[in-house]
Design goal:
The protein is elongated and about 70 Å long. It starts with a helix and ends with a helix. It is of the alpha/beta class. The protein has helices spanning 2-11, 27-38, 40-43, 60-74, 93-112, 123-135, 140-143, 166-175, 192-207, 212-241, 261-275, 284-296, 324-334, and strands spanning 18-22, 46-53, 78-82, 116-118, 149-152, 155-158, 242-246, 249-252, 302-304, 309-313, 318-322. It folds into two domains: 2-219, HUPs (Rossmann fold), CATH 3.40.50.620; 247-334, Uridine Diphospho-n-acetylenolpyruvylglucosamine Reductase, domain 3 (2-Layer Sandwich). Helix 2 crosses helix 8, helix 6 (123-135) packs across helix 9 and helix 6 crosses helix 10. The strands form two sheets. It has a six-stranded mixed beta sheet with strand order 3-2-1-4-6-5, sandwiched between helices. It has a five-stranded antiparallel beta sheet with strand order 7-8-11-10-9.
């Protein structure tokens, strides 16, 4: 594991960097912290621990205390955040908890002057993510899984263990006699990801391909590279199509319809992103409706999309705009 981590530090350009390591107390994050500590002198790393207490389980406080003790053991600063209010039960609870954790990590990194946040996602996590997104009907953007390096709100997120398997991490933990904590919710069938981890992947390994996790990881890497290439082309096409742009409106030319289908889909998403940064509610069905409107509906037709967005078919262009009620809602939220 350590050799792969060393290669990842080189590839991710982590030399002479201040890194906030996200540590839950589980085996993956403990192994990442220990590995980066071993490479600390060689790569001139300044490390700190970031731990977010979701306060959802009776073990949460003990896990927090354990992570704080790791900070003392490794002699690094430790920052702890806690969920202010309990989240409502429902389908989006897991995603909401993840967003709260990322917000804490990013705010902490900015305040502490850490250029990178290191996350402990590994190859098995990547395989699970690809299958999870596939089952949810994702396109290429979802099937490319997690990326090794990404910028979020001005902070760089890195995943140095993406080429490392869970088995390699377990062997590293055992060899170095590292202590860790187990989150029992990781074994609950309440979450689809856990069903994929404990039921679907073992089935695929047993009956179809014993190296399915490695194959899915490679698939994610290839699709990620191809998606980045298409996205860069789509960005150039969009810039050339823009007729008018303001904070809540964007007009592009009808020559959009002359683009290749793959570019059209991405230009559509990038156009929306100019007005709304969060695209998670936009899916393929919305794109199909959009194209149908442009081809079949009369001039002046308007298609309402999620996120308070609408699209109008005009004689000389395609107008994306923020609906009036959404603009008033945003103004109220800013007060």
């Amino acid at each position: 594991m350590l050799d792969k981590l060393k290669i990842a530090c080189e590839v991710l350009n982590l030399r002479n960097s201040a890194i906030l390591v996200s540590v839950s107390g589980g085996p993956d994050s403990v192994a990442l912290l220990d590995g980066l500590t071993k490479l600390k002198r060689e790569f001139s790393l300044s490390l700190a621990i970031g731990h977010f207490n979701h306060a959802q389980r009776k073990e949460s406080d003990e896990e927090e205390s354990f992570v704080v003790s790791l900070g003392h053991r490794y002699n690094v600063p430790t920052y702890v955040g806690r969920l202010d209010a309990p989240l409502k039960e429902g389908v989006g609870k897991e995603a909401a908890m993840r967003e709260e954790r990322y917000k804490f990590l990013i705010d902490t990194a900015k305040r502490g002057g850490y250029s990178f946040i290191a996350l402990a996602h590994h190859m098995d996590d990547q395989a699970e993510t690809v299958l999870l997104n596939l089952l949810r009907g994702a396109g290429v953007q979802g099937l490319k899984g997690m990326v090794p390096k990404a910028v979020r709100n001005g902070v760089i997120l890195v995943r140095p263990l993406l080429e490392v398997s869970r088995k390699e991490i377990e062997d590293y933990i055992e060899h170095n006699k590292l202590e860790f904590r187990i989150d029992r919710t990781n074994y609950s069938s309440e979450f689809l990801r856990n069903k994929i981890r404990w039921e679907l992947i073992p089935y695929l390994e047993r009956d179809f391909n014993p190296k399915i996790k490695e194959r899915l990881s490679i698939l994610a890497k290839v699709l990620g590279e191809e998606f980045d290439f298409i996205s860069s082309l789509a960005q150039k096409q969009l810039e050339g199509l823009i007729i008018y742009e303001s904070i809540d409106e964007l007009m592009i030319g009808l020559s959009f319809l002359d683009l290749h289908e793959a570019l059209r889909r991405q230009v559509f998403r990038l156009a929306i992103k100019r007005l709304r940064s969060d695209l998670r509610q936009i899916d393929f069905r919305h794109y199909q409706e959009f194209v149908k409107m442009l081809k079949d509906w009369p001039i002046g037709s308007i298609l309402d999309l999620p996120l308070g967005l609408s699209v109008e078919k005009r004689r000389k262009g395609i107008r994306f705009f923020l609906r009036k009620e959404k603009k008033e809602e945003d103004k109220e939220n800013e007060k």
